[in-house]
Amino acid sequence: MLLFSINGFSQKSKKQTKVLISTSYGDMTLVLYNETLQHRDNFIKLVKDEFYDGTLFHRVIAGFMIQGGDPDSKTAVKGQMLGNGGPGHTVPAEFNKKFYHKRGALSAARMGDGINPQKASSGSQFYIVQGKKYDRNNLESMGKRSGANYTEDQIKTYEMEGGTPQLDMNYTVFGEVIKGFDVIDKIAAVAKGRADRPKEDVKMTMKIVR
Questions:
Q1: What's the pTM value of the predicted model, to 2 decimals?
Q2: CB-based contacts of 176: which residues, under 8 Å, 6+ apart?
Q3: How confident is the model over 98-125, as a mean pLDDT?
Q4: Angle of helix 136-146 relative to helix 152-160, nearest 10 degrees?
Q5: Which phi and psi (to 5°) does residue 107 adopt?
Q6: What is the rounded distance in angstroms from the CA atom of residue 108 to the CA atom of residue 114?
Q7: In 32-66, which positions are buried (b, 16+ CB within 10 angstroms) versus exposed (e)?
Q8: Where in the sequence is the domain holding 180, given as residue range(s)?
Q9: Is 177 exposed, middle or buried (0-12, 13-18, 19+ CB in 10 A)?
Q10: Would you say 128 and 105 are in contact if contact means Cβ atoms under 8 Å apart?
Q11: Nearest in space to 70 (alpha carbons), one of 111, 25, 126, 23
Q12: CATH of the domain at 94
């Protein structure tokens, strides 16, 4: 696979880009973090190229996340296994301790550590966190096992809003949902078949919004 390189979207900007994801279950508005520059620019390019239009949320797990971005899903028949498609490049990991897997986090999917020790992200596949709530004791135990050191703000967020703290600093978080949290819940609750693929296709379209 080719490593993604920035071209044309690398200008510095304090204004966050917003993306609208439309589905039959409603719309979600996301903001992309400027600090995760390569993921931001890659995502913007794919959205502008209409790469995601007609793709599916092909893997959904209630209490965890909803995943999409596989181009093979555009033409997939019912029951077809998905999750291996992409645009032909990866994006280097851009871990940032202030961006974590709270409810609504937009994160990049990736191949496992065994074949991807540098934790490079998929060039197109992403997931949006639904998650669940964790109490302080759960987080402290989790931190001891993983070596994670959760801040007080992170602990409060995971207690009050929920998330998937076990994924922190292992998958790049590069944005978050700011509107449409109910849509995450609706998609996560659909009936699923093999490999957590929804029995009825959940298609998406995306566009940049201001």
A1: 0.92
A2: 30, 31, 33, 102, 104, 105, 106
A3: 97
A4: 120
A5: -135, 160
A6: 17
A7: bbeebbbbbbbbbbbbeeebbeebbbbbbeeebbb
A8: 2-209
A9: buried
A10: yes
A11: 126
A12: 2.40.100.10
Q: What is the DSSP letter of 132?
A: B
Distance of alpha carbon 52 from alpha carbon 70, whole angstroms: 8
- Give the whole-angstrom CA distance, residue 106 versus residue 90: 17
Confidence of residue 4 (pLDDT cuts 50, 70, 90): very low
Cα–Cα distance, 94 to 127 (Å, whole number): 16
Helix (H) and strand (E) counts in the chain = 4, 11
* Closest to 175 measured CA to CA, from 21, 25, 22, 19: 19
| Residue 81 clears pLDDT 70, i.e. is over it | yes
H helices of 26-170, in order, are: 37-48, 136-146, 152-160
Name the domain count of the chain. 1
Q: Given its phi and psi angles, is residue 62 left (phi above 0), alpha (psi -120 to 50 degrees) or beta?
A: beta
Output the DSSP codes for 65-86. Answer: EEEE--GGGGGPPTT---S---
Copy the structure tokens of residue 174: 């590069």
Angle at 90 between CA 89 and CA 95, to 5 degrees: 160
